[in-house]
Write a structure and sequence with these properties.
This protein is α+β, with helices and mostly antiparallel strands. Helices cover 42% and strands 14% of the residues. The protein has 2 domains: 227 residues, Hypothetical protein, domain 2 (Endonuclease III, domain 1, Orthogonal Bundle), CATH 1.10.340; 98 residues, Nucleoside Triphosphate Pyrophosphohydrolase (Alpha-Beta Complex), CATH 3.90.79. It binds iron/sulfur cluster.
Length: 342
């Protein structure tokens, strides 16, 4: 029988899981097998928070080269609060989702105003760029607050452990999992418990081919019992928005490239530099196509064609940037991909 949120809050056994055995097995395994990651060697809330912001929608391996470099450049919340925007974006360039960097700076300024890093869940949650997941992760890891953090890895583990038949994206399923996670979390070691759940999802309970033989909670896993691990989580099919075509122009004159900078209020990539698109410069003369690439944003795939072109006089919204200075400005990912076609 499916546990309803109401039934769970009445204290019934959550999905038939033995919470004590679950956390014991999980934490024992975590102690033996956790990866040595730089943000696990600190109790500094600033460093833990930065790691959580970087890890939002980004894999550990992609974050590692940026994390220490970023903290060397901005070693304190004050230095991040004071950073010039172009320097901040440059330090973040390559990690993507640049609104995270801007929100981190807004949050740093707020923390400086407060005079200290907030040490309660609500205070952390109120900072710009921090949602349910990140506030729970920072609160539990930095301050040992009992708050279950549900990221994609944790949701996958829970969906398999319970063999949840509902859509993982639905509000009902999320509500059930929140209640279940709140019951499972170890009140004595909430930070380790959250990290162990994420670690389990990232290294053992993999999206395809989960390593059930190595799993510390296999005795509690319903999907394994019924032999259907790979069927979970259940996801409702997304409608793809298809493919959209663009042409980017590489216009070079006297060793400088023609670029434009996104305005500060741009919805995406504000402040980043872009190559002109053909429809922005109707007066440009296209010489030859030098390559193409695809770039996906959310569920839309854009096909970009890259062409060398020339122009007599550039419009006022464009700037000539010397080739040797190109790496000093924050370039958008599409501009980088286009330049790589040369
Ligand atoms: S037993 Fe397998 S499917 Fe179940 S939680 Fe462990 S790794 Fe995931």
């Amino acid at each position: 029988m499916r546990n309803s949120p109401q039934a769970l809050t009445r204290g019934l056994s959550p999905f038939g899981i033995d919470a004590s055995a679950f956390r014991q097995g999980l934490l024992h395994w975590y102690g033996l097998h956790k990866r040595d990651l730089p943000w696990r060697r600190t109790t500094d809330p600033y460093r833990i928070w930065i790691s959580e912001i970087m890890l939002q929608q980004t894999r550990v391996a992609a974050v590692l080269p940026y994390y220490e470099r970023f903290l060397t450049r901005f070693p304190s919340v004050e230095s991040l609060a004071d950073a010039p925007e172009q320097e901040l974006l440059h330090a973040w360039a390559g990690l993507g989702y640049y609104s995270r960097a801007r929100n981190a700076q807004k949050a740093a300024r707020r923390i400086v105003e407060l005079g200290r890093f907030p040490s309660d869940r609500e205070g952390i949650r109120a900072l710009p760029g921090i949602g349910e997941y990140t506030s729970a992760a920072v609160a539990s890891i930095a301050f040992q607050i009992k708050a279950a953090a549900l990221d994609g890895n944790v949701l996958r583990v829970l969906s398999r452990v319970t063999a949840e038949p509902g859509d993982i994206g639905s509000t009902d399923v999320r509500a059930r999992f929140r209640i279940l996670a709140d019951k499972l979390i170890d009140p004595a070691r909430p930070g380790d418990f959250n990290q162990a759940m994420m670690e389990l999802g990232a290294t053992i309970c993999l999206p395809s081919q989960p390593q059930c033989l190595l799993c510390p909670v296999e005795a509690q896993c319903k999907a394994l019992r019924i032999g259907r691990q790979s069927e979970f989580p259940i996801k409702a099919k997304k409608v793809s928005n298809g493919q959209v075509e663009h042409r980017l122009l590489l216009i070079e004159k006297g060793g400088s490239l023609l670029l434009w900078q996104r305005p500060p209020d741009s919805r995406r990539m504000a402040g980043f530099w872009e190559l002109p698109q053909a429809d922005q410069l109707p007066g440009a003369c296209v010489c030859r196509v030098v390559g193409e690439f695809r770039h996906t944003i959310v569920n839309t795939t854009y096909r970009f064609e890259v062409a060398e072109a020339s122009i007599e006089i550039a419009d006022s919204g464009f700037s000539w940037v010397a080739r040797e200075k190109i790496n000093e400005v924050p370039l958008s990912t599409t501009a980088k991909k286009a330049l790589a076609c040369l």
